[in-house]
């Protein structure tokens, strides 16, 4: 057996995975304008399900018909029609024996396309660094200035996450992951420069983590016994340089406090998943494992199977999630098992747009369609 750890079964919360390879969330902005799943999306997810993955994470999916959507043509789970449109995806993926969970998303200030409202909201009136992303139909201009969330709006968003989770489970998803990473709403609370509040959501790292913890507790109460995880990162789509100011001490608080909620896993996003951080010998996912004691999904340039295998062997994580490598070759696990070389990611796959139409067009123009 090549890569014996990668291809060994392992349970995660209530789910049994046939191997440790998980498709990482990949926003493709290919739903309808009002956030419904399309037939092309169904065949896209079915392709992963046939590719031998232990589990699939959906792309970031918005949770309400207000400020949560961040990208035009992003799918939602904000109403029953959207939920019903996902049901066929879940059924098709389950027909291949593959579990699938939904990533739940709120853009906060990082909103460059919202079908429902024109304003953005955020913990504080701080414009995101960087500009709107063109591969998601952004105009390369700065983001609009967000409006400060009231306590009432914070409470409403938490309820909407819980309702979205309940909707996802009701149509058959195996679980949900709160997108707490990459600069979106929860991460805007955790990040010092986007959180300038003077209430109980700011102060020390514990206060800046409060929104994550309240979210996790509310979602857990909504979906008892079902798989629940949270994604965490230091860097953001709008800021690749940010690191936690308290370094190891912050990591200790963040991961150990998350572990006190009833979550099943932490999914750590990083550009180089196994790079050591904060002058320690461990990666961020290694620290997550140490301080939380929870199952950890490691991520970031682990598509070389030897890197994935050694990340698992060295205790950097219990599972690996693969982003660009999965996008490039939906059959990555089966190819490796068969001793074949998966197709490599090239930027043209997501340029000029990260949509499925663009990707399938690329595949039909190249030899990347060898599956
Ligand atoms: C096209 C594209 C879309 C992405 N969409 C999401 C997303 O919806 N949610 C998320 O948490 N991360 C998203 N990411 C980040 C990936 O999940 C992953 O963390 C990142 O690509 C690093 O892993 P890799 O080196 O295996 O690609 C996206 C990345 C890419 C390239």
Which helices and strands appear, and what pairs or packs with what?
Elements: E1 10-12, E2 15-17, E3 21-23, H1 39-49, E4 55-62, H2 80-95, E5 100-105, E6 121-122, E7 147-148, H3 151-170, E8 175-179, H4 185-190, H5 205-208, H6 210-222, E9 227-233, H7 247-260, E10 265-269, H8 284-292, E11 296-299, H9 305-313, E12 319-322, H10 324-328, H11 332-337, H12 356-365
Parallel strand pairs: 3-4, 3-12, 4-5, 5-8, 6-7, 8-9, 9-10, 10-11, 11-12
Antiparallel strand pairs: 1-2
Helix pairs in contact: 1-2, 3-6, 7-8
Bound molecules: flavin mononucleotide.
Flavin mononucleotide is lined by residues 24-27, 59-60, 103, 179, 181-182, 231, 269, 299-303, 322-325, 350, 354.
């Amino acid at each position: 057996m090549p890569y014996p750890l990668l291809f060994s079964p392992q349970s995660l919360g209530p789910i049994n995975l046939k191997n440790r390879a998980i498709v990482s969330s990949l926003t493709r902005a290919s739903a309808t304008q009002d956030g419904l799943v399309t037939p092309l999306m169904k065949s896209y997810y079915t392709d992963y399900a046939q590719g031998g993955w232990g589990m699939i994470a959906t792309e970031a999916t918005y949770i309400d018909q207000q400020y949560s959507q961040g990208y035009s043509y992003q799918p939602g789970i904000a109403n029953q029609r959207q939920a019903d449109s996902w049901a066929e995806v879940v059924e098709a993926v389950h027909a291949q024996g593959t579990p699938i969970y939904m990533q739940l998303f709120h853009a906060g200030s990082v909103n460059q396309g919202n079908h429902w409202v024109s304003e953005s909201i955020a913990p504080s009136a701080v414009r995101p660094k960087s500009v709107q992303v063109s591969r998601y139909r952004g105009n390369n201009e700065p983001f609009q200035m967000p409006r400060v969330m009231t306590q009432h709006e914070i409470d409403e968003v938490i309820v909407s996450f819980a309702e979205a989770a309940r909707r996802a489970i009701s149509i058959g998803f195996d679980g949900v992951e709160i997108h707490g990473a990459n600069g979106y709403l929860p991460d805007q609370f955790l990040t010092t420069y986007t959180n300038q509040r003077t209430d109980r959501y700011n102060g020390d790292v514990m206060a800046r983590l409060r929104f994550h913890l309240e979210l996790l507790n509310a979602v857990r109460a909504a979906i008892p016994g079902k798989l629940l995880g949270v994604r965490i990162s230091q860097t953001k789509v709008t800021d690749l340089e940010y690191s936690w100011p308290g370094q190891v001490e912050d990591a200790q608080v963040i991961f150990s406090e998350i572990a006190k909620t009833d979550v099943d896993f932490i999914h750590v996003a990083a550009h180089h998943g196994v790079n050591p951080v904060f002058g320690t010998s461990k990666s961020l996912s290694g620290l997550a494992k140490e301080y939380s004691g929870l199952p950890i999904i490691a991520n970031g340039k682990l598509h070389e199977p030897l890197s994935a295998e050694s990340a698992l062997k060295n205790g950097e994580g219990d599972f690996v999630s693969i982003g660009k490598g999965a996008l490039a070759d939906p059959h990555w696990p089966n190819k490796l098992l068969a001793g074949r070389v998966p197709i490599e990611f090239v930027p043209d796959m997501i340029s000029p747009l990260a949509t499925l139409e663009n990707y399938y067009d690329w595949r039909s123009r190249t030899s990347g369609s060898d599956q």
